[in-house]
């Protein structure tokens, strides 16, 4: 199989295509990415795949196009593939019919991949594109789109929409320090105070941070389930939900602060409560644990 040049040509073709797919997939699995740009990344992947198998003259709708109607049977399939095919033809080891079948196989793979991506994109993808308006680059533009549609989609109170709109339009008037990372930028906005010790962008910052906390893939959820299975093992199967939730919160808090159990310094007020009845006064164990790790920026979420 591996000595077959036709299979080698096909693998050479796949390496280029799957490299792009894997890059985008890793973005969705990561927890240090800008969620306002993820949709753009997958749409760029979809567009690049469509351009691989269609003629440049076609201007197609990425989300609704039936790619089978626009496939170019003689499209360029990458340097390694074309080089291998050319060498095989020169050596007389690849007939015209075999080349046609090989090209059809490659094109069929891309067409199926395009259709799978289209099926998995949400129907409201055009509206979700507007989440990119919350990226630090778009937020600080002087000439920017209105975010009213985005606010309505996420069911913000009608009386708040004009206020948040105004805050969004004026936010570029302030000189901000964090201009490279969207999460850090909105954290800075949330902590901003004017001369009256009030935040003139409070509602906008709360909305933006809430959107940024939405899970952009199931990778983080799967990590949480893995951590849960480690904590609540067969030997600890009688552990109750409050304790499990508290331990998961501790792990999440340490991870968020970039600390480990051997480097985290317990707050003095918590240490003083050890071996006292005060720690048992509240039935809500989760809140007492979360308070140890919550930050000022978490208060808005």
Automatic annotation (TrEMBL):
<feature type="domain" description="HAT C-terminal dimerisation">
    <location>
        <begin position="167"/>
        <end position="251"/>
    </location>
</feature>
<protein>
    <recommendedName>
        <fullName>HAT C-terminal dimerisation domain-containing protein</fullName>
    </recommendedName>
</protein>
<dbReference type="Pfam" id="PF05699">
    <property type="entry name" value="Dimer_Tnp_hAT"/>
</dbReference>
<dbReference type="InterPro" id="IPR008906">
    <property type="entry name" value="HATC_C_dom"/>
</dbReference>
<dbReference type="InterPro" id="IPR012337">
    <property type="entry name" value="RNaseH-like_sf"/>
</dbReference>
<dbReference type="GO" id="GO:0046983">
    <property type="term" value="F:protein dimerization activity"/>
</dbReference>
């Amino acid at each position: 199989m591996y000595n077959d040049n036709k299979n080698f040509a096909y693998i050479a073709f796949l390496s280029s295509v799957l490299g792009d797919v894997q890059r985008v997939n890793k973005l969705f699995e990561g927890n240090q990415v800008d969620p306002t740009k993820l949709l753009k990344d997958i749409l760029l992947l979809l567009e690049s795949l469509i351009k691989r198998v269609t003629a440049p003259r076609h201007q197609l709708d990425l989300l609704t196009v039936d790619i089978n109607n626009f496939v170019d049977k003689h499209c360029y399939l990458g340097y390694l593939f074309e080089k291998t095919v050319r060498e095989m033809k020169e050596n007389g080891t690849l007939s015209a019919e075999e080349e046609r079948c090989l090209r059809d196989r490659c094109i069929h793979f891309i067409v199926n991949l395009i259709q799978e991506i289209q099926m998995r994109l949400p129907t409201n993808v055009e509206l979700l594109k507007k989440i990119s308006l919350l990226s630090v680059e778009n937020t600080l533009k002087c000439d920017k789109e209105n975010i009213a549609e985005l606010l309505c989609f996420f069911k913000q109170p009608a009386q708040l929409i004009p206020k948040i709109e105004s805050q969004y339009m004026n936010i570029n008037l302030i000189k901000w320090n964090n201009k490279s990372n969207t999460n850090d930028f909105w954290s800075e906005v949330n902590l901003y105070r004017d001369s009256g010790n009030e935040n003139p962008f409070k509602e906008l910052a709360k909305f933006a941070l809430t959107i940024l906390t939405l899970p952009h893939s199931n990778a983080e959820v799967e990590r949480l389930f893995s951590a849960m299975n480690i904590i609540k093992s067969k030997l600890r199967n009688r552990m109750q939900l409050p304790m499990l939730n508290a331990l998961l919160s501790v792990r999440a808090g340490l991870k968020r602060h970039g600390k480990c159990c051997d480097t985290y310094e317990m707050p003095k007020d918590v240490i003083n409560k050890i071996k006292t009845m005060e720690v048992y006064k509240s039935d809500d164990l989760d809140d007492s644990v979360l308070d140890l790790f919550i930050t000022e920026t978490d208060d808005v979420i």
